[in-house]
Amino acid sequence: MSRKIPTRHILAFGGGGIWAEHNATPMREFLLGLTGKDRPRVCLLPTATGDEQRIIDAFYGCLTADLAATSHVPLFDRLAGPADPCKHLLSQDLIWVGGGNTANMLAIWRVHGIDRALRRAWESGVVLAGGSAGAICWFHGGTTDSFGPLAAINDGLKFLRGSFCPHYDAEPGRRPLYRRLVASGRLPSGLAMDDGAAAHFVGTKLAEVVTWRPSARGFRMTRRGSRAAETPLPVRCLARKTT
């Protein structure tokens, strides 16, 4: 009998307060629903902000015990988390990667073997998601302020092809920089997401762009010769209509 291959999901968010904004509730429900569990096990990886307590508190405050069994994996104070972080990640239904410093996060993950654990988790059907740094990491690279000024980073995990640009509508420098980097070949063609929008991949193929902010959009940036072409993508808005 052939072994069933798990469905693999990655959601790459442009940014926004999914664990803080009240109107992000439909997006949270969508994300949890991808696990197929009534009360999924959801783990936060807050590495990119140095395990900042404010980020951890917002996560636990949003996902109450009736919605999910929550946990987090700290890597700066290993005694405060699971004894075996990699084993813990593999036992989850959904892993959320917080935003922050992409370069530092990737370096720390590799020291602790988190990069390998995330690939195994994804291949076993654990839903992977995150915003900003937590979105760039799944691709070859993207635009980052990890080094101060906005610049390219090509050090991603490469689960997904191409590059990713977050905060497309929120930070004025992102759009022109991403266009230049793709046009010059310093970054491969890829996707850009506004805050409040997420690229949903099933396997390694883009399935759709979903949003919780009605104005949020997603774009494909493609290198054509020495230029970059920006193409708007269809968007499905999950925001509930108010009466």
Reconstruct the topology from this structure.
Elements: E1 9-13, H1 25-33, E2 41-45, H2 53-62, E3 69-72, H3 85-90, E4 94-97, H4 102-112, H5 114-123, E5 127-131, H6 133-136, E6 141-144, E7 151-153, E8 163-165, H7 174-184, E9 190-193, E10 197-202, E11 205-211, E12 218-224, E13 227-232, E14 235-237
Parallel strand pairs: 1-5, 2-3, 2-4, 4-5, 6-8, 8-9, 11-14
Antiparallel strand pairs: 1-10, 6-7, 9-12, 10-11, 12-13
What are its keywords?
single chain; 243 residues; alpha/beta; Rossmann fold; eight-stranded mixed beta sheet; six-stranded mixed beta sheet; 7 helices; 14 strands
> What name goes with the CATH superfamily of one domain?
Class I glutamine amidotransferase (GATase) domain
Number of alpha- plus pi-helical segments: 7
In N-to-C order, the SSE pattern is EHEHEHEHHEHEEEHEEEEEE
The main β sheet shows up as: 8 strands, mixed
CATH C-level name of one domain: Alpha Beta
Mean model confidence by pLDDT? 95
Class per helix and strand makeup: alpha/beta
CATH architecture of one domain: 3-Layer(aba) Sandwich
Topology, number of strands: 14
Order of strands, main sheet, comes to: 3-2-4-5-1-10-11-14
Distance between the termini: 52 Å
- Rg computed from alpha carbons, rounded to a whole number of angstroms: 17 Å
What sort of overall outline do the alpha carbons produce when their principal axes are compared? globular
Residue fraction in strands: 25-35%
Extract low-pLDDT stretches: none
Helix proportion: 25-40%
| CATH-defined fold name of one domain | Rossmann fold
